[in-house]
Amino acid sequence: MKKSWRYLQEFLIFKLIYPVLLKYINEHLITPNDEMEKNKKENNVPNLEPEYQQLPILRLIYSILFNYLHENFISREDLLEQCQEKNNFYQLNYEEAIYLEPAISYQEIPTAFREKEGKFEFTNPFAAVVKNVELFGIHGIGFTQEKKIILEIVLDRVDVLEHTAISTLRQGFNFQYLTPVKNIEHIDLACSLVNYWSPLYAHWIYEALTRLEVLEYYSQNTGKKPKLIIDKNPPIWETRSLELMGYRPEDYIEWNGTRARINELVICSKRREGGRISIKACHWVRERILSNVDSYANQNLLLSPKIFISRRKANARRILNEEQVIDTLAKMDFVPYVLEDLDFADQVKLFAQAEFIIAPHGGGVTNIIFSQNLTLIELFGQKISHFYYTVAQGLKFDYACMFCEAKNEDIIVNCQELTKMVHKMTKTKI
């Protein structure tokens, strides 16, 4: 009886009532406000409070949904135990720990940074094979035959699982959801790189490409090569990065956005834990991509070792006095670059030879993974994030942060203070 009730819940929540209800609420009853738009621009896991305040019934709906999710997911620990028992488990044989030093700044260091200081030990990376998995919805939520949700597929985070489910249901009802399993797409052997954040540049580089190391370890031990499942209509940088990693179009397929049955799904562990990225995984990705980049990069691209990253084409965190900043930095031989104007391979080439980078917080800073001996000054406004601090510190780069005047999502940089910071970091490096 309990099993039947769980199946009925799964059917009602994911395949019939909730998709219709949440789509209707989202399109007709919720009025977007400034806070919602800000969350959307910042690419965070959305804050649900503004929706609760507008429509209290949503609190009840989400409570029922979240209770179901919390009772029916397989944690990393449970996944490891189950796969080890069935001998469907492959683990890289090395241990890794990093030590993060305090960031350099003239201003008070935020708590978000302080909490990451010190030593951190990573889990040994692994690949676990689960049979007869159904991938469901736009972000490919993974259900086992027992209707359990595999948490590792959604970045091993319960909050991401919650918002993945909400995002999926808001897309509305699709008749493919009710198609009998025998009639949906079947894939024999695959590894999914699709999740809630995989369409975002930083998350793709640090949380998708880094998983390929252990996938290749699985292939070396089994002689099998799973198909990669990537985002539907992927951006060019996603497919280009796979090319530079040595993968060809025949090695991956685009997610259909609805449902598929995977006979054997290879689940590779996330290499970012506790807000810190595995440095061994970063080195592996960097070496692989740098070994192939010369075949793709523009040989005529001007490469300056001193780089200022412009966000003039972004939706948020633009520098409102950018021309003044560029003029100030030009006196110290910095050259501005708009990364949206560069192919992925050119960005790799640019960052690989960089010695000093100044940039507002944003996706472009992701490319420091390709740098080798770097000083980085990261500029912040309203949004404060430890993401690149932990990467830079883990890679043993010289890192400083500067907190600027915020104008909504954009910033105004104090050029005098920035000049002082450049001189301080130059002396520190010498």
TrEMBL record:
Location of the Glycosyltransferase 61 catalytic domain: 201-375
Source taxon at top rank: Bacteria
InterPro entries cross-referenced by the UniProt entry: Glyco_transf_61_cat, Glycosyltransferase_61
Pfam families assigned to the protein according to its UniProt record, in alphabetical order: Glyco_transf_61
This protein's UniProt keywords: Glycoprotein, Glycosyltransferase, Transferase
Keyword Glycoprotein attached: yes
Official protein name in the record: Glycosyltransferase family 61 protein
The species this protein was found in: Nostoc punctiforme FACHB-252
